[in-house]
Amino acid sequence: MPIRRRIQSGKMAGINRINDRRNKSFYFVLMFMLFFLSILFTEIFFVEENASMEFSFFERLRWKKDTNKEIVLPPHVARELAQVITEEDLDIIVNLYYDSQQDEDDELLGSKNADHWQSVRGTKDKFFVFSAYLDDRRVRLVRVIAAARTRNANKVMCKFWFAGGYPPVTVPAFNKLIQENWNLKYSAYFVLCPLSKGLSTLPERVSIISSENAEITNWLVVHNNKKDSTSSQGIAVCVKPMHYSYNKLLNFIEFIELNRIFGAQHFVLYNNTIGHDVACVMRQYMANGMMTVLPWKLDLVSQKEIRTEGLFAALNDCLYRTMYRFRFVLMIDFDEFIVPHKSESLIEMLGFLINKKPAKTGAYSFQNSFFYLQWPKDPKSSSLPLHLVTLERTMRKLKFHPHKQRSKCIVLPERVVEMGNHFVWEFLPGRAMVDIPSSIGFLHHYRICEFGGNDCINTTSVVDRRIYRWKDQLVQAVQTRLRNWDFVCNFSAVSSDININISH
């Protein structure tokens, strides 16, 4: 009996230990689940969302308009808007102004209707808006280009203004973070303003406000490019904000003229600060209808508060500004050229490419290749009358960067929702990026070593004189511009290290 009792007692002790372990495991799992649920609950109900709605969708649908009557969007509009969330031109010629006494070459003075950065008063943090566009590709809304705090951006509302005595209407706004922000304090945003199907007319302007009774401190024209443009044709070029008193005259004219030779028709630029010579040349291009320049004075510290003067706001503004007006849009910088290597022009190359997958294509990606400025100049360039970088620098890095790494795009703007610097973040459903082989064309990128120093010149290189195919056209075009505008712009003031021979 004692032995049997000891055996039974040992069995019971073993069973108790197993039960204790089970209980501990259960409590451990329960505590983990409670901890996880608490985090999830906090994220949903207390932390502002950056990638979609900034606060409760249903709460905001019940905000009121100016007549104090409750405005509730129809369920089908709410559903469509929720899907989106989870996700004059320009031809207004803005005049450049130069005052030799005040040295204000970088100022843009023009029409009161010209888009420019305006503040939203009454918000806890800085909140700015730049432009507004009607976008009815999924659900009818007004899309505003904005800049706001990256995390926990302020809640705002949209106040629509109409012509013909129609009373203003206030609706909830939804902040959609533009995804490239480099984790800085402020980022570019889309502010989405839904338009109810009950509206019998479209708004002419919109103001972004912090509350229904807030002071109106911004007044944005609602651009309706789809209505104002007969058809999207041709090629436009978008360039990020010009800064550091940009005044590289020869590089600037070379950039414009070579892209025009390739087939580009219009250029959209954003002026943070520019110098006198480039300002004068801009006046001439704008007078000829080839260029749109928009003031870009954003009251945020570049690289400390926001990335490169808010370049992602500029890229997406240009996307919507050119939409329905141009079939193709290049998103490049002044030291970059998308060069066709089998075709004679971008028009010919794009005509070939679009026939491959016409219904599915949303954009084309072109691989990057560096033409480092530290490499020796091409011997053939010594006899040229101008120091043109694309003809002097013909050594390039043999290895191409993969797509999405330093690549640049040509987009079909009507098929794109959100533009990034090196690729498209979001397309309309059914559209996609097409990666273009380097044999057809690629990005020529002229710059110094990207990581500083001169180590880059030790990489494997190859001579690429593809641009020489257009050498005579390019030299003549740049010389003609300099010769015709010399009297107006006084190019003798250009720094002596740039040789400008404008003789016939």
From TrEMBL:
Keywords: Glycosyltransferase, Membrane, Transferase, Transmembrane, Transmembrane helix. Its main location: membrane. The keyword Nuclease does not apply. It is found in: Membrane. It is a single-pass membrane protein. It is an enzyme of class 2 (transferase). Signal peptide: none annotated. Its EC number is 2.4.1.-. Belongs to the glycosyltransferase 92 family. This is Glycosyltransferase family 92 protein. The gene is LOC111083656.
